[in-house]
Amino acid sequence: MNEYIIGIDVGSSKICAAAGKVDKYGRMQIMGITSANCNGVKKGIVVDIDKTSESIKQCIDSLERMVDTKITEAYICLPGGICELVWNKGVVAVASEDREIKENDIKRVLKASKIITIPSDKEIVGVIPEQYIIDGYDKIKDPVGMSGLRLEVDAQIILAQSTVVNNLLKSISKAEIKVLGIVLQPLAISQVALKEEEIQRGIALVDVGAQSTDIYIYEGSNLVSIDTIPLGGNTITNDIALCLKLPFSEAEKLKIRYGSVGEESVSYDSPIEVNVDYNGKVHVDYFMLKQIIEARIEEILYLIDQKIKCSELYEKISGIVLVGGGLALIKGIEGFSKHILEKPIRVGAPEYIGAASPLYASAVGIVKDVADSIKDKGFMTEVKKESEDSNREWTEERDKKDNNNGFVSKIKEFFTDFF
């Protein structure tokens, strides 16, 4: 089990799970990915623990068959729409006598940044360090190893309702999965759907789910805004079901298979045959279906546009990236959206074989985020081990030579001090 990193994304209509591992070259590989329908979550909030737990079990069972191992531990993501960002500062004195900043100093300053007044119904679920400041010098990303007397951090404190988080954790625990850690959903998605240049320049990440649309705005490498619209892909399906008098499940199949917008979409001359029940069939006109889908998508896009413009960051945004299964899977959505959002737009998807779908962005992003953390720690351990081995070999070689005392012993002292 230890060789796989498991990421679980609990969504309003689907549970997605991904299994990944880091190969010997330090590259992450996705070894398996799957999804299962879910009816126990509404707008990112668990409303039925039993149903959600059962869906998680089905999803994990399917993933276990793919990777041929028992899964008992996983990392999960917390939807950004149920979270709140609060800016705060932490300040500590550097503890070591030589004034070198160590990992423990980072932990202390991040802990200090959490000292804020929060409502009784909320809890701190994470901290995002935006920049570190050493003795007044700011914009430092990684201060470990640097020297200073005073260490500060500007951080975003992530708050969420305690009951919402607890119900999510209970659902996963009931599925007999131990939660090893929580990743904020926008940070997970940004790992696999956004480019570093886009995050630096300013980008809007729009995650359209089944029942809600989350809008995340990045500027200068930082997540600066989270907003939510209470409409998603299920709204389009409901319109199809009501207008064409079809069951919801058949309307969903129609949307996935034939859903398209704009002039570039494929045309169907003959009517589409749909099963209404066990005995009856109806024929649906493709152009009628397209009009229904376009009308609702146009409304969702206008609402997204209004939210982005109201954030006062509109001018700083260089483009928009769509993820999730609500809009990103609709044919022709990129060209159709440009006329409304008036920004360069693309569909974001993980660039991994077998997982290159915007539907899997969150699950793959969790694995990527955890893999990067493990890889960094593993790399430092490996460097330390290699340096110790080098010192040992060098010492053994030096012991064989009695007459090399001057220049060589100075190098040895340097290596000893350095490592």
UniProtKB/TrEMBL annotation:
<dbReference type="InterPro" id="IPR043129">
    <property type="entry name" value="ATPase_NBD"/>
</dbReference>
<keyword id="KW-0472">Membrane</keyword>
<comment type="similarity">
    <text>Belongs to the FtsA/MreB family.</text>
</comment>
<dbReference type="GO" id="GO:0009898">
    <property type="term" value="C:cytoplasmic side of plasma membrane"/>
</dbReference>
<dbReference type="InterPro" id="IPR050696">
    <property type="entry name" value="FtsA/MreB"/>
</dbReference>
<protein>
    <recommendedName>
        <fullName>Cell division protein FtsA</fullName>
    </recommendedName>
</protein>
<dbReference type="GO" id="GO:0032153">
    <property type="term" value="C:cell division site"/>
</dbReference>
<dbReference type="InterPro" id="IPR020823">
    <property type="entry name" value="Cell_div_FtsA"/>
</dbReference>
<feature type="domain" description="SHS2">
    <location>
        <begin position="5"/>
        <end position="193"/>
    </location>
</feature>
<keyword id="KW-1003">Cell membrane</keyword>
<comment type="subunit">
    <text>Self-interacts. Interacts with FtsZ.</text>
</comment>
<comment type="function">
    <text>Cell division protein that is involved in the assembly of the Z ring. May serve as a membrane anchor for the Z ring.</text>
</comment>
<dbReference type="InterPro" id="IPR003494">
    <property type="entry name" value="SHS2_FtsA"/>
</dbReference>
<keyword id="KW-0131">Cell cycle</keyword>
<keyword id="KW-0132">Cell division</keyword>
<dbReference type="Pfam" id="PF14450">
    <property type="entry name" value="FtsA"/>
</dbReference>
<dbReference type="GO" id="GO:0043093">
    <property type="term" value="P:FtsZ-dependent cytokinesis"/>
</dbReference>
<dbReference type="Pfam" id="PF02491">
    <property type="entry name" value="SHS2_FTSA"/>
</dbReference>
